[in-house]
Amino acid sequence: MDQKLNYGIQTVERLSSSRSEIKKLYPYNKVVLLKKGSKLLIDFDWYICKSDTVYFINPNQHFTFQDSNGVLLFFDPDFYCIEIHDNELACDGILYSNVFSTTSIPLTETVGSKVQFILQEIQSEMQSKDFWTNEKIRLLIKYIIIECTREWVKLEGNKLPQLTREQEISRQFSVLVDKYHCQIHNIHKYAEKMNLSTKTLHKYISTNYGTSPGCILAKKIILEAKKLLVHTTLSVKEIAFKLGYSDASYFNRYFKQQTQSTPLQFRKAYQERYK
């Protein structure tokens, strides 16, 4: 994959043996279908598939595979924009841009067969490319997203095949935090963007996830800080500025409060563990 592609499919086995190929996929949205027993590392968390499972990985999330079998579909956000199609599909903040957790969906035989069929259709289109190929692949990506969002709703135990009020509020909050965590550190401002009171936002998030909006925002900021500490050579001051903090000392204290270690201690411990 030497030039920027709009989309593609690769086997997980091939990616497992090539760290450089995985890095090339960081800018893309990914749909990863893994077989039972496969292991997947996303950022700092390991996932083990207890059954065939599909994962949704955002651009610039760091990931790798271990003892894994499956396929990975990648597509450029400009080729198929999740945000543009969000009003139709209500998947942004659930499948992608989910700051609560990485979305993984254990597949039933029926849904697994559908996803496999769609991936085969995409591969077929890629091999016999013509004037209509790009548009058909956009539709096939949309089809995967619809089927998986439907399955997510079922797994949540919804009485109706749609999002509840609590889920919709949580989804919107997730999208905003993912987009603005480097600029907005005040929960009141997120509530304003959603035309809610801070109290109402707190009620919905705590009801749905058992934690406060402030904790979710802090979790996102600290995750991004850890990624910058581990995967770049930026100074703590540069990382603080990148995350929206003009006072590096304040950021240093904030990081320690959340993790029980300073940024430099975290970087050193990680490097020693994986050197």
TrEMBL record:
UniProt keyword annotations, A-Z: DNA-binding, Transcription, Transcription regulation
Cited InterPro entries: Homeodomain-like_sf, HTH_AraC, Tscrpt_reg_AraC-type_HTH
Pfam families recorded for this chain? Answer: HTH_18
Cite the SMART domains for this sequence: HTH_ARAC
Q: Does the keyword Methyltransferase apply?
A: no
Which residues are in the HTH araC/xylS-type domain?
170-269
Q: Which Gene3D superfamilies match?
A: Homeodomain-like
Record's keyword annotation contains Transport:
no
Task: Look up the coiled coil feature and give its residue ranges.
Answer: none
Q: Spell out the protein name for this chain.
A: HTH araC/xylS-type domain-containing protein
Q: Which organism is it from?
A: Wandonia haliotis
